[in-house]
Write a structure and sequence with these properties.
single chain; mainly alpha; Membrane-bound Lytic Murein Transglycosylase D, Chain A; two-stranded antiparallel ribbon
Length: 109
């Protein structure tokens, strides 16, 4: 069994930059976490400031088809009718969310 050559040697010293940068990195990570959380909730605890509706609340109000208007996105359409973007994408697999055109018809049911 090999013995250390200098068992009385002091542990290596930590440089002053490591002593400063370690805690600063931790503080930066905590601040980044807080910023991400507050930006995803709109800063006031509500979920990004949009009206929260569920598909059940809008039952009967959701049309079977929707004609895309100027400025519409899948997100705005999903918020308008209270259905998920995933559902719209699932019902319209041939539609590219990046190239919605005014007058395009989307299935919502």
């Amino acid at each position: 069994m090999a013995q250390p050559s200098e068992p009385w040697a002091a542990p290596p010293r930590i440089s002053w930059t490591a002593r400063i940068l370690g805690p600063l990195a931790l503080i930066a990570a905590v601040i980044a976490f807080v910023v991400v959380i507050t930006s995803s909730t709109g800063g006031d605890g509500s979920s990004s400031g949009t009206k929260q509706t569920t598909e059940r609340e809008n039952k009967g109000e959701i049309p079977k088809k929707y004609t895309v208007q100027a400025g519409d996105s899948l997100t705005s359409i999903s918020e308008k009718f209270g259905i998920s973007v995933k559902r719209i994408e699932r019902l319209n697999p041939d539609v590219d969310a990046q190239t919605l055109n005014e007058g395009q018809v989307l299935k919502l049911h």
